[in-house]
Amino acid sequence: MSQKKSFQGLILTLQEFWAAQGCVILQPYDMEVGAGTFHPATTLRALGPKPWKAAYVQPSRRPKDGRYGENPNRLQHYYQFQVILKPNPPNLQELYLASLDAIGVDLKLHDIRFVEDDWESPTLGAWGLGWECWCDGMEVSQFTYFQQVAGFECAPVAGELTYGLERLAMYVQGVENVYDLDFNGAEGADRITYGDVFLQAEQEYSRHNFEAADTAMLFRQFTDAEAACRSYLEAGAPAAETERHRMAQPAYDQCIKASHVFNLLDARGVISVTERQSYILRVRELAKACGAAWLKTAAGGAP
Amino acid sequence: MPDLLLELRSEEIPARMQRRAAEDLKKLVTDALVERGFLYEGAKAFSTPRRLALHIAGLPARGEAVREERRGPRVGAPEAAIQGFLKSAGLASLDEAQKITDPKKGEFYLAVIERAGRETLDVLAELLPEIIRNFPWPKAMRWGAASAQPGALRWVRPLQSIVATFGPETETPEVVPFAVGGIAAGTVTYGHRFLAPGPIEVRRFDDYIQALERAKVILDADRRKDVILHDARDLAFARGLDLVEDEGLLEEVAGLVEWPVVLMGSFDAAFLDIPAEAIRATIRANQKCFVLRKSGSEDLAPAFILVSNLLASDGGQAITAGNERVVRARLSDAKFFWETDKATKLEDRLPKLGSIVFHEKLGTQGERIARIAALAKELAPLVGADPALAERAARLAKADLVTEMVGEFPELQGLMGRKYAALQGEHPSVCAAIEEHYKPVGPSDRVPSDPVSIAVALADKLDTLVGFWAIGEKPTGSKDPYALRRAALGVIRIILENKYLVQISRYITRATSALRSQICLKAVGDDVIFKIGRGDFIDIDIVDPPIDIDRFDIHGDLRRILLEEPANNTVRLNRHRTIGGRVAGSQGSRIFNGVDVSDLLAFFADRLKVYLRDQGARHDLIDAVFALPGQDDLLMVVRRVEALGQFLDTEDGKNLLAGVKRASNILRIEEKKDGRAYDAAPDSTLAASGEPAERALAEALAGAAATASQAIASEDFAGAMRALSTLRAPVDAFFQDVTVNAPDPKLRENRLLLLNALRAATRAVADFSKIEG
Asked: A292, A67, A265, A87: which is closest to A178 by C-alpha?
């Protein structure tokens, strides 16, 4: 296996490719999130008039998707490679295709398709139009033009690309089971697979997510995070119309926290159908308040 | 005459929107042209994933000159009026106006305005940007740097280029000079994204469509569909297989490719253990591929047809292999669902349905199933079904909603339940009913024929109708979110096509009592729902007077309050308390104020009218029958309408109708004049002593009315019509020989009463006044 086709090689190639397009290459956000979109480099930076280009890997946690390491395609923890370009350049589709070419997808041999997929995140109060990108019938990326985030119109619109790294790597490597992925491209005793790195974690976290996660603690944490978010927003609020907000990002951290705690509670099956809706609504209210605060900061474009 | 070529090239347009968008584009542009007086010879619109195109042939190069005369004020009118006239007519002074003489009103000014016809090119340049800016996409978006500004152009996906040319065939056409959203119309387009990505210079439609074809773009969606269908059939045939054709999928796939390349992939035959419908659903929904059958067989083959957008340099090997991998993964999932589902019996899934809310005000799926089961059992004898089987089928009918397979493919509901039921050894009628109780789902869908299926289908639909009627969620206008019209039509078709003689109101009453038998109280905040045996649904939040909860007798006191207090009297239960272990916490309110049976019956009558009209029955005959009281036996209504129609086709029928109408008119006028009703029985002795025609009518009426009533009582509508037809001759003779408004008031009264007796006799069959003609 060539270094380039290994899981880490794929990440390095994508980082190099998007760095060459002028993106800042960020590191993963240091909190548990359900998708790369939650990273403030996307959610918050998509708001306001200032141009922004960034790319990063984001470990994403979907507690409900855990399968104790027994399903070859489903993981409760996986990697997304996220690109955000604001405003979207006119040739974003071409750039995306060039990035596939860069990681070794031969566009003369493979059938790449843009299939309608409208994206919506109820918890973030966000939606956009775009596609799922298919390679020979497999969805390998999400391509979205953000129209609204945190309840605010995006002006200008940002283009967001999300690569499902495990899927893409499985495709590039021709592997049917995610745990068989070549992680480091080394030979013999040095060879490390995805399973070597993550199989035990998948087993342990599935147990945790479905059986053990302390629900009483989590309910407390949800309420605490919600209250903290509100109090930080209040504490950082501008005293006058002409002033800026001073704590939008710490408040948003609490919103992320509440969202993840909700996902864990959901996986534990302790939230009923009707309650589910109200929890989602509560997180969305936090996201909206954080978005509003962000728009009053310098990076959010406030004067 | 010159042609217009318009192409709007964008990033990939959702397949489901393309055809409609092309038609909209054609309509909007041609309507706008016609509105401005520009007629054309022909127009055709096209769509691919990346472009909408429009060709309008035979437009004039310029519009016709317009001459308009505008009449002004009279000569010598006040200055203000003169100035207003000059301004509106666009004249500099009165010297440019003519004077005309009106014989009555004297001399007037007249402005003759002549406008040269406008250049079509200019008109197009004016109207095209407007149409593009206001295009009716189901969902549109902003993009790019321009989206920072309010009012930025919206399109379904980013619009990349516009071709707009106009001119005659023999000359180089001109570019229609306009720009929208910063994109100027021009003559350059691009070919297939991967196979011919370079720019193409186009002039007019003929060379445009050919250039695209060379650049691996088939512009016409129908041609792409043809290519796909024929290539798919050929590929299948070559391997001894048949394509399972699927128009919806074909349409969608044709909207996903500009250059269709049909390939065949295969999968492990071991997957054929999975039900064929599930294989098809997964391959269709997730992969947009077609499945194949072994030639001349109903069995699926372990192969599928995929449609690629790429003519690959390896002949499609990598593409096929990639699709096979995905199909394999999907079928592995489906097999897992199938195996997992089989491990749990359908009845063991019922507790889970108890936690799924069907409708906030109508309780959980579990509660609904209990109602349907009770109702199906009760209805069973009416439709000749075994009550125990009907109840069993109803209890299992919704269980597959919580299986993995139906969770993944909702369109397989019912069908999967049937398969799982068969595997666990249920009675064949129970298995069939699990699938068929949803039927008929539309006007052309099959009506179930197994009595058990019928009992469950009726119970399901009636519970739905009664439930939503109870909570006031009736269809309004075009809004029918719970498909209640479909449910009512389903009930109607089941009853009529199986020829059940039953009053629909009896069904409704039974369904209502099933709903009543579940009593639920509203939980407010941290209050609880109490469920007790029988009673009403009532909204409860306030106790007045307060109830001592510890001494509160749920079966007695609560029932008394619920059933005897006014419906809006509400009760608040402030403490959690377990009653017989049947307390559940929940949110939302439940109100049951009973069902307005006559309103629901009227809804059925409306649906029946629609149904009969669709079957070709005369709407006036339907109205004439429905005007009679108590028409809720659907089959009787239909038979009555049929008999009436046949009768009115005869000479006797037509003449009798005319006679009855004449009688009704006379009665209406005289009753109004006299301020009284003539509704008593006529005096037969008086009639007997009157004129011969009068006597004959009285005798005929007495006989015919009795015979007709008897025939109606034994549901012999044709017999009733025959009895009425004997009245024709006496009625005709009566109107010919007898003066109704006789000078003798007693005679006059009796003759009016005779006419009323005629009207009454015919009312046994229908209200003739509602019949046209």
From this structure: A67
